[in-house]
Amino acid sequence: xxxxxxxxxxxxxxxxxxxxxxxxxxxxxxxxxxxxxxxxxxxxxxxxxxxxxxxxxxxxxxxxxxxxxxxxxxxxxxxxxxxxxxxxxxxxxxxxxxxxxxxxxxxxxxxxxxxxxxxxxxxxxxxxxxxxxxxxxxxxxxxxxxxxxxxxxxxxxxxxxxxxxxxxxxxxxxxxxxxxxxxxxxxxxxxxxxxxxxxxxxxxxxxxxxxxxxxxxxxxxxxxxxxxxxxxxxxxxxxxxxxxxxxxxxxxxxxxxxxxxxxxxxxxxxxxxxxxxxx
Length: 279
Prior knowledge:
This is Putative 2-succinyl-6-hydroxy-2,4-cyclohexadiene-1-carboxylate synthase. This protein is of the alpha/beta class.
C-alpha cells in the first residue's frame, strides 16, 4: 500500500506487485486494487502490476464534494498517481467495467501517457443526452440508496443482479473474496462515484476513439451480450482497435476465466507494448 498525494489534500492508493514493464490496472465499481485475484497473479508473473484504487474506492480518498469524481479530473489524478508510482510517462493501461471507462478516458484525454489500452466489459459512455439523463436519474437513486441503507445492504442487492448470474459456478472462496473487497468500501465513496463518474455523468468518448493512436483491445465475456456488442463497436471505431470474446464468461471475465483473459491480454501486450517498454 502506497498513498500518493496527487494534489494538495487528495491522495490515491496504489498497490504494486510483479516485475517487468508496468501495466496499470483499474478496477470496476465497488472494487479496489485488491480485486484482481488469479488474473492479477498471472499478470504479475510477467509484468509489474500497478493497481490503483479509483477515487471513492478502497484506500483512496472519498471526498464529500464531486470535484475529484468527475471523469476529467479523475483521469488527471490517475495519471499523476501512476507517474509518481512508476516514474514513467507512458504505460499500458487495462480497466474493467467502470475502470475500463476510466482507462478509455485517460487514453482519450491524455494520449501521451497510454502506450497500449485494454478493457474488459467496458463502454465509451452513452452517445445521446436522453440516454445519459436517464442513467443519471438511475445512478442518483442508487447513490441515495447506498447512503440510506449502507454498504452491506447495497452489496446484498448488487450481488443479486442478473449481471452476475454467470458467476454461480465460481468457487465459494472466490466469491467470498470479491464480497470482502466490496464491503470494504464506504457509502460516501460509492455514492460520489455514481454521481460524478457514472456512465450518465461522464462525457461520451465515441468520437475520440476514432483518433485514438494507441493499440486498443476491447474484451468482453461471450455471455455478456450487451458488452460484447459494445466491444466490437469500440474496436471498429479505433484505428488500431481489436475485439475479443472470452468463452463461457460473463461481465467479469477476468474473474470467471482468468487464464483465458490473461492469454488474450498477454498476447496483445507482447505484440503492441513490450517492443516499446523493454530497453
